[in-house]
């Protein structure tokens, strides 16, 4: 039986985040934040992988219906954690920088 992923839990402040380690082909840069649509379109992540991370995160259950608008944080080489649920998750495109929720559109307040 091929193991597709290893799930680990990490504590960040008062939030517990689920991290997904893919079996291969998926990537991210440590410390960067990515919209789900960017991870699927440009980084090799699958819809199923994103849903798995969401299901194991403290994000609300409705987040699984909108994986493209979930903001993920790269916590290690090829590891992501569900970070925020956005009404609209934005990618800066060719300009270097993190993806982000429009400030007024973040559905979660962590601080």
From TrEMBL:
Q: Could you tell me the keywords of this UniProt record?
A: Signal
**Signal peptide interval:** 1-18
The protein's name in its UniProt record: Uncharacterized protein
């Amino acid at each position: 039986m091929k193991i597709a992923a290893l799930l680990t839990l990490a504590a960040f402040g008062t939030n517990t985040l689920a991290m997904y380690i893919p079996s291969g082909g998926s990537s991210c840069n440590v410390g960067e934040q990515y919209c789900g649509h960017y991870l699927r379109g440009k980084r090799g992540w699958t819809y199923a992988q994103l849903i798995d991370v969401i299901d194991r995160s403290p994000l609300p259950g409705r987040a699984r219906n909108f994986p493209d608008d979930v903001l993920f944080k790269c916590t290690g080489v090829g590891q992501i954690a569900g970070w925020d649920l956005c009404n609209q998750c934005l990618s800066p495109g060719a300009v270097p920088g993190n993806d982000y929720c429009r400030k007024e559109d973040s559905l979660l307040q962590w601080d």
